[in-house]
Amino acid sequence: MKILMKKHLLLLCTTTALPLSVFASQTVTQSEPVSDQIIEQQRAELQQNTLDKGFGPQSPRDIDNIAGNNTQLFSYAPNTTDMNLCNIHFHKNAEHKGGEFTRYAGNGDGKGNNSGYLYAGQLTKEELTPISVPLSKELHHQLFPGDTIEVHYVYSTANVKPGPTLGSCLSDSTKNPALRVESQVFVLVNDKEALDFVELTKHSVKGDRPQAINIPDNSGQPIQYLGSTTGPAYNQQGSPFQVTWSVRPQVLKVSINTVATWFKDNQYNENHAHGVRNLVTNPLLLSAY
Q1: What is the CA radius of gyration of the chain?
Q2: Are 230 and 79 in contact (CB under 8 A)?
Q3: Which runs of E-coded beta strand occur in the chain?
Q4: What DSSP element (H or E) covers 197?
Q5: Which among 232, 10, 230, 280 is positioned nearest to 115, based on CA atoms?
Q6: What does the CA dihedral 146, 10, 155, 245 come to, rounded to 10 degrees?
Q7: What letter would DSSP give residue 211?
Q8: Cα(first)–Cα(last) distance of the chain, in Å?
Q9: What is the pLDDT of residues 56-106, one digit of tens each?
Q10: Helices and strands (H, E) in the chain, number of each type
């Protein structure tokens, strides 16, 4: 059971305006995006493989839309102060939709790359100044000024410490821990005065529990809902893990150079942005808020 759970978890992750509208977007395209029919087919397969098979409500979702009819309920996870930080990672483009991240990036390759949602605001020419070396050597995972990322601060009720992959959220003594994800969307800017990603991901022990000490508290009231783990491995399969989500609706600016610094040295062994799962739109697979 432990091996199976870890396998599933590893699959998961595994402004000043210009005179003209300058949207936060610099995408890398290796091939033509898949058709709408492919995405529709994936959603149909997700329903077939998930509905009435005991799965709980799924994620990600539109946080501006409260519609949801999934009746498989579970209890909300405790507050983060009563849980243990176990992992921090992020996805290229927001997996969730809503708030200030509503602009669709496109269908991408159907495998989680170049899809998701983008910051809908404007950035200055200076903020979009190219950096000398792209972040990540892998084409799909390269990051540029103007790109959107969704950061997941993952908490568990298991007696665990922060570590690589979401397998760090499990322990031999707790097979079914409650999971909570605090989500914050950022836009990358070439500005040394922007937020420091190294600082944003710092943690310390408070009351014998590891805690992320700099999760933003100035990006709107988080939308809390019951859902699942995410990631493109679940485009056609239901995620079996139950997660309490808190998704902040406002986007904050973070210095892209500090993300580069974090990639070079972090205890989560993260060195690239992860892909995104298709937005779950079927009310039968979504919880009501």
Answers
A1: 18
A2: no
A3: 84-92, 103-104, 117-118, 148-156, 179-189, 203-206, 209-212, 223-228, 242-247, 252-255
A4: helix 197-200
A5: 232
A6: 60
A7: E
A8: 30
A9: 999 999 999 988 999 888 999 999 999 999 999 999 999 999 999 999 999
A10: 4, 10
Residues 145 and 190: beta-carbon distance below 8 Å: yes
Q: What is the pLDDT of residue 23?
A: 33
Cis peptide leading into residue 145 (ω within 30°): no
Burial class (CB in 10 A: 0-12, 13-18, 19+), 228: buried
Over residues 114-167, the pLDDT tens digits come to 999 999 999 999 999 999 877 876 677 899 999 999 999 999 999 999 999 989
Has residue 38 got a pLDDT over 90?
A: yes
Structure tokens at 84: 């243990």
**pLDDT (0 to 100) of residue 30:** 56
**Matching residue, tokens 């493989």:** 49
- Positive or negative, the CA dihedral 75, 238, 250, 165 is positive
Spatial separation of the C-alpha atoms in residues 56 and 50, rounded to whole Å: 9
3-state secondary structure of 6: helix
Closest CA to 144 of 133, 154, 160: 133
Contact 277/91 with Cβ under 8 angstroms? no
Residue type, 71: T
Query: pTM (2 decimals)?
Result: 0.89
pLDDT band at 4 (very low <50, low <70, confident <90, very high): very low
C-alpha closest to that of 272 among 29, 8, 89: 89
pLDDT single digits (tens) 179-191:
999 999 999 999 9
Please state whether beta strands 84-92 and 148-156 pair in parallel, antiparallel, or not at all (unpaired): antiparallel
